[in-house]
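Tokens for chain A. Residues wanted.
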């Protein structure tokens, strides 16, 4: 049983690779007018508008990791929290087109991730299961019960694969999972600001589907299905969560009336990777890392975060910024890792182009004590593994100018060479997937979380990041000397000094 699921996952991963001479299967033509709707409504569900005010705007970026008293569970604080993790942050306009951006980035700005809330005894909000409607910053009450003893808020996530598959074809499942990781990190930051300590629940996919009503197949007849991802407890006075819904309301809207293509392999890999998030009971070690004093408001960093569409190709990143960014990627180095308490399995390989005091070249920073020797055994023998920092586990592999290589590897995208640092996120791969095929999702979540930390750390000091989901997988592996699937690169990232496009105007998120 497990064997066939493992085989499905590994086969999916192999066939969804981009190669220098062949992209993974995707649509031959794109009808931009027929892009699936980025917002799903639950027609007939009662809507509650959420307050838009951010209740934590006085906290600075460097104060973010400090422990603070939990804010009361009320509709105002929930509204503030949701804006900071999955809410809209702006509308953009150019040449008659208008598009929105959110606190969490998404591959192609397609936003497959849907947010759910389960609430009980929250001041100002009836108990129930709600869908978060990002467009209006409102909750749609999908289900409720007349008997709830518990008090708490739980957050659920699902993915609508078609939103990504419409544009990216078979590789889209990976992007949905990376997006999920970005959303988890965004939740972690927003929760830290409100003094809440979210925890991922070890529920299997069927239980997540049941709690969120995603298994009510007749409700989804004729519309795009939602894949259960995970539920987090945000605040609760009770181990269990309410799921004995007695009343249901609403019908999900159709997102794409005329889907042109079908990518059945996505549903196959989704089925093969269903499973529980492994519950671990470990505390996150705090690394000896430096924390640059930074008075900028954390809220501002979160709401102003954008992906750079172009970098200037010349700015040199200060050494302190580089170090702070790397330190925050280590377990415990950022409040984000409070929700990710198991051993780190994704490790950054850095292509340093322009960093003060660091020779251009290829570097690696194993994020766990055990990873260094296994990476060393798997990587190219000729790599030097020279310690490159007195405090961080950073090693120089080879001194070289890697700008052109970075661009080629990242599907020829200029952002990978014009940035100051590009990065490949290398996952421990075959062993975790053989042990539990659901790990395929969790490795992508971890990579997405790393990307999100990079992006916000950069944003806080005036730099900017961009996720790069398009890369040539096995060309990466060749550069690193990886000859099997003990490790695989699953995400790229770029950080640099962004060039803004003055033709694009910015409008407020909600007005
Ligand atoms: C998983 C993932 C993959 C991405 N891949 C690319 C990429 O290959 N090239 C690129 O220019 N941007 C890429 N992006 C950036 C998105 O295009 C960007 O997040 C989206 O347009 C929304 O804009 P925002 O991040 O400013 O909110 C990626 C983002 C994510 C989360």
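Reply:
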């Amino acid at each position: 049983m497990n064997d066939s699921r493992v085989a499905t996952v590994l086969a999916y991963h192999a066939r969804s690779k981009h190669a220098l001479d062949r992209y993974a299967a995707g649509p031959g033509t794109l009808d931009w007018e027929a892009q699936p709707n980025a917002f799903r409504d639950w027609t007939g569900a009662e809507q509650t508008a959420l307050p838009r005010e951010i209740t934590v705007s006085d906290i600075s970026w460097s104060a973010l990791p400090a422990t603070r008293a939990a804010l009361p569970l009320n509709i105002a604080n929930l509204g503030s929290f949701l804006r900071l993790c999955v809410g809209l942050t702006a509308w953009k306009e150019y040449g008659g087109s208008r598009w929105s951006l959110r606190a969490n980035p998404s591959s192609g700005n397609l936003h497959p991730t849907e947010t759910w809330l389960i609430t009980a005894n929250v001041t100002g909000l009836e108990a129930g299961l709600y869908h978060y409607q990002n467009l209006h910053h409102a909750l749609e009450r999908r289900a409720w019960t007349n008997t709830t003893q518990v008090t708490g808020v739980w957050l659920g996530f699902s993915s609508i694969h078609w939103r990504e598959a419409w544009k990216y074809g078979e590789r889209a499942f990976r992007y949905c999972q990376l997006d999920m990781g970005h959303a988890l990190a965004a939740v972690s930051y927003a929760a830290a600001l409100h003094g809440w300590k979210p925890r991922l629940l070890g529920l299997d996919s069927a239980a997540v589907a049941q709690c969120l009503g995603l298994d009510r197949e007749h409700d989804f007849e004729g519309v795009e299905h939602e894949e259960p991802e995970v539920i987090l407890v945000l605040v609760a006075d009770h181990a269990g969560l309410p799921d004995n819904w007695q009343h249901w309301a609403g019908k999900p809207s159709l997102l794409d009336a005329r889907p042109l293509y079908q990518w059945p392999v996505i549903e196959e890999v989704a089925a093969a990777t269903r499973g529980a998030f492994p519950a671990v009971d470990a505390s996150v070690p705090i690394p000896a890392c430096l924390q640059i004093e930074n008075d900028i408001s954390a809220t501002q960093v979160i709401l102003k975060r954008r992906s750079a569409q172009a970098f200037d190709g010349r700015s040199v990143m200060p050494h302190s910024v580089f170090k702070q960014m790397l330190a925050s990627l280590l377990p415990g180095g950022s409040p984000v890792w409070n929700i990710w308490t198991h051993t780190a399995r994704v490790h950054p390989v850095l292509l340093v182009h322009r960093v003060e005091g660091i020779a251009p070249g290829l570097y690696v920073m194993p994020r766990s004590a055990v990873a260094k020797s296994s990476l060393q055994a798997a990587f190219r023998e000729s790599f030097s593994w020279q310690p490159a920092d007195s405090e961080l586990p950073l090693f120089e592999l080879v001194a070289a100018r890697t700008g052109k290589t970075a661009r080629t590897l990242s599907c020829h995208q200029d952002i990978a060479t014009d940035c100051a640092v590009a990065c490949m996120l290398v996952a421990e791969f075959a062993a975790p997937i053989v042990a539990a095929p659901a790990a395929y999702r969790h490795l992508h979540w971890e990579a997405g979380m790393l990307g999100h930390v990079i992006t916000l750390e950069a944003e806080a000091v005036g730099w900017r990041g961009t996720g790069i989901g398009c890369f040539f997988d096995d060309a990466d592996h060749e550069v690193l000397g990886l000859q099997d699937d003990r490790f695989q690169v699953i995400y790229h990232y770029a950080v640099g000094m962004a060039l803004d496009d003055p033709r694009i105007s910015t409008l407020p998120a909600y007005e």
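Residues 188 and 336 are 5 Å apart (CA to CA). Residues 101, 105-109, 175, 178-179, 182, 306-307, 413, 415, 466-470 surround flavin mononucleotide (CB under 6 Å).
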